[in-house]
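In the design runs reported in the main text, the only information available to the sequence generator was the tokenized backbone. The following block is the verbatim input for one such run; it is reproduced so that readers can re-run the procedure and compare outputs position by position.
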């Protein structure tokens, strides 16, 4: 019976893979997760063993099956949200041609792709996104130049979730959100751009690009081999799924232009919704994504680092303290961190400006400062980057906040005061998986519209006028210092 159906949402992130079971009321039954291994064989490298990730998924699935056999037997469908960008290559036998190169792999910056004559004009004309160091075309070019034997073995170029979908169903396909993100797609025409591949001298890579599908399309069913490995029943429907930030948007109910949405994860993703008529193709800052909601697109300003930047500083300064203890101390320090300003560009930057050579900096340190002044400045630097990404954007009155760091009331209130708008934080921690489950329920006919699936499980934060004014002054200082030092980013 429909009301007894269970749905499996899978979120394949950069650091963790999570499998979550939900019932028809969107109640989370259980979640199984495992930390993924990211390999860094040389400076700038960021890689995942593709077979290892599949084994991780199977391990989590078998754990859920053994602990919740009744619910597992009632799974009506599954889908995956996955980390975006990157290159997950297959050879002629559909086996990994090498380890996957991830979105934060920066080795291709040696190629200086931005200086390619005619590239910026082509991207603007074709409604395409800028090419970042971890974009698929950049990584394809990098392998062609530095590892031609590996490049020559590639017959299919996939994204993270596409690889796992292939392992589940045996079908090679990608969805428009992933392809549009960084794979040379004209989002308006929903077509690959051959001229881009010729311009980058990787024209042969175009033949390796997968068939596109709508995110909510059923692309196949769980195969017998996949059943034996992961425990999902053979014949279970599998949807194409989408880029993780698009799934989180659905999980957060971010479906109209009245709201903005920020995900404070490993990177920080700041989003607004636009129609195609509102899209400015000459604005190559951030990325324009194909949204799950028909007829809409998500303009994202995705920073190179989110909580990963503050985690680095915490590991240096306060490795033994719990976040609860740390935030209790930081709340006692005034806005402005007693004169210290931090730029969180530890991994270069992607938005609101693009510069892979940008670096992090502390300014204003004096002998009386403590490690907690520095630590608060690190979090304020992240909040200032958040504000910076929304400069020039309008039309929204509230910001949805999600991601691991947003769980802290201290961080959520800081971001709320910094931007001066109400903030709604979704209580559900597995928003990517929840978004996929909502997509499954709509695709499989359990509901007619996403409106029927809105979750009223938010914590509300309201901005304080005086604190907002203090953060505005800090933002002016943040931007001024950034302008003065960027000439040294080489």
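Verbatim output:
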């Amino acid at each position: 019976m429909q009301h007894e159906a269970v749905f499996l949402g899978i979120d394949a992130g950069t650091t963790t893979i999570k499998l979550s079971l939900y019932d028809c009321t969107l109640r989370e039954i259980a979640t199984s997760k495992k930390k993924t291994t990211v390999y860094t064989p040389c400076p700038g490298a960021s890689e995942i063993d593709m077979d290892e990730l599949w084994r991780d998924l199977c391990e989590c699935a078998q754990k859920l099956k053994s602990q919740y056999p009744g619910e597992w037997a009632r799974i009506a469908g599954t889908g995956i949200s996955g980390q975006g960008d990157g290159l997950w290559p297959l050879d002629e036998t559909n086996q990994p041609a090498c380890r996957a190169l991830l979105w934060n792999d920066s080795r291709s910056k040696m190629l200086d792709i931005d200086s390619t004559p005619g590239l910026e004009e082509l991207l603007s004309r074709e409604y395409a996104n800028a090419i970042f160091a971890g974009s698929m075309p950049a990584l394809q070019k990098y392998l062609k130049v530095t590892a031609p034997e590996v490049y020559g073995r590639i017959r299919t170029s996939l994204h993270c979730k596409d690889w796992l979908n292939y392992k589940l169903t045996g079908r090679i396909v990608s969805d428009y959100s992933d392809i549009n993100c960084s794979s040379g797609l004209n989002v308006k025409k929903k077509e690959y751009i051959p001229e881009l591949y010729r311009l980058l001298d990787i024209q042969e890579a175009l033949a390796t690009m997968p068939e596109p599908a709508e995110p909510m399309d059923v692309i196949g069913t769980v195969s017998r081999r996949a059943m034996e490995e992961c425990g999902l029943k053979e014949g279970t429907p599998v949807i194409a799924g989408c880029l993780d930030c698009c799934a989180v948007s659905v999980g957060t109910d971010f479906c109209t232009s009245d709201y903005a949405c920020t995900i404070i994860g490993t990177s920080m993703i700041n989003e607004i919704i636009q129609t195609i008529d509102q899209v400015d193709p000459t604005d190559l800052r951030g990325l324009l994504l194909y949204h799950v909601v028909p007829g809409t697109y998500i303009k994202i300003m995705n920073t190179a680092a989110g909580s990963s930047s503050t985690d680095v500083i915490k590991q240096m300064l306060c490795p033994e303290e719990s976040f609860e203890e740390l935030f209790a101390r930081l709340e006692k320090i005034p806005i402005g961190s007693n004169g210290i300003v931090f730029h969180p560009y530890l991994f270069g930057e992607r938005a609101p400006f693009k510069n892979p050579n940008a670096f992090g900096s502390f300014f204003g340190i004096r002998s009386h400062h403590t490690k907690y002044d520095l630590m608060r400045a690190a979090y304020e630097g992240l909040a200032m980057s958040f504000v910076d990404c929304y400069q020039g954007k309008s039309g929204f009155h509230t910001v949805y906040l999600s991601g691991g760091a947003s769980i802290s009331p201290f961080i959520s209130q800081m971001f709320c005061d910094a931007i001066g708008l109400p903030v709604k934080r979704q209580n559900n921690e597995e928003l990517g998986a929840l978004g996929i489950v909502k997509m499954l329920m709509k695709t499989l006919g359990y509901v007619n519209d996403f409106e029927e699936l809105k979750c009223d499980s938010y914590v509300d934060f309201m901005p304080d006028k005086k604190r907002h004014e203090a953060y505005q002054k800090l933002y002016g200082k943040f931007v001024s210092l950034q302008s003065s030092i960027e000439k040294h980013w080489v």
